[in-house]
Design a protein that fits this description.
mainly alpha
Amino acid sequence: MTTAVVTPDLVTTAAESTTSLIQSVDWLAIAPPVVVAAMALIVLVTDLFLPERRKPLLGALTITGLVAALALLVPLRDGDRSTFCLNAAATGSGAADACSYTADHFALVIQALVLGGALLTALLSLGDIRKLPAGEFWFLLLSSASGAALLPAARDLATLVVALEVASLPAFALVGIKRGDRRSSEAALKFFLSSVVATAVMLLGVSFVYATTGTLHLTEIAARLDDVPGQLDTLAKVGVALTLVGFAFKTAAAPFHFWVPDTYIGAPLPVAAYLSVVGKAVGFSGLILVTVVAFPAYADVWGPALAVLAALTMTIGNVAALRQNAGRARSAVRLLAWSSVAQAGYLLVPIAAAAYSSDEHIGSTVAYALMYAVVNLGAFAVAALVARTSPGNRITDYRGLYATRPLAALAMAFFLLCLAGLPPGVIGLFAKVTVFSAAVDAGLGWLAVVMAVNVVIALYYYLQWTATLFRAPEEAPEGAPAAARDETPADGFTPAPTRHGAPASLAVAITLTAVAGVVLSGAPQTVLRFAAVNLF
């Protein structure tokens, strides 16, 4: 019979090993996404007990939760806080502790963008006679926003994938939430199937990266990819390429953009606005993290690929937007959809540039994303206002808007000029100049030329829509049958009974975005300073 002898050294080693596996939890750092998730559950349970006439309370709860989550970002503004960490002894390296959640400046800026976008989406969704189930709508919106707020703080591939799916799965349901609407169901199915395929490809890439490095933490992956054995080099490169596919899909980068127009048209207008801003922010923040933080050793793989994707995306988006028929039903939303594809191409430029110089160019992407979020949400807010009296939401329906709603027309003109990069939309011009400079500084002169050509192409359709706002309204022919027009609501809401009435929440959304755009145009450097990030 053998007797085991436990020495003090073994006891100490076991204790140290146990301690190294204990993950710290910083509750303040994780508070913003947790508060949004908790409010989603509260809304879901409250909906079970509220009578139909009290359903508007759910919208108020949603806005309260989002405002509270935004407020919780304030005490985090000074810190570089991390939680769910394994120390160096557990990771088997001499590097610093590996953490799964980091509330650094990059995460906080993207979280502010995501939560602010969700809040404006909630404002767009209030104040109308809804055809949508209120409880499910608010629950799904908050659930998606919680995943979107989690993703920029994630620092391991498992958390990134989980956050991406938490943000995406409720979005599928939001797109198809208009019950009985064939267009909505078709859009949701197309969005779901294409997203599932992209996610499957991404997971295959993640598995290849894990097989190569033996870790999921981004900083650990970066360290181990610097010294990959020769027989695993091809596997690592394939893993890097496949991982990027999932995030490229979320950003609507070509050739993964085909779902965008039909999805935006089939979804309620507030959901389309949400996808165009928050969904894009999710994709770009994930793309930045996996490229700049996890895969810098393979910059020669993803750098040229993203540069080509940027050129292809902005060109396809602008050419498709240029070809839109102004008299076609829902042409306004369709043009905004193609415009968002083109804007995704501009957003990809600084990320591609980071492969050739340093991660300082990432601040240009974040600054451009902030500008785009403000003005694009504003444009969708005006579109929701016009859709109340012109459910077909054609571009021709905006003719003479200045004569009937002068403030809304001025706001829409400002938003379109910002997207075009023309004064008085100084913030749009400033954002495009910073992106253009990033390409030039990185030696990507050919990409800068492609971007310049695309900016000129985009001027045509943005200015054409802007001019439409101030033209004299057309007189409808006497005796023209109302049935000749497509009166199916484009935003999932019932049109208002009066021409000039507008929900207060919708007016607030337009006012907030317009004021934010004007203020940022007066001090554009503020955006770049706020968005300046250093991921290392």
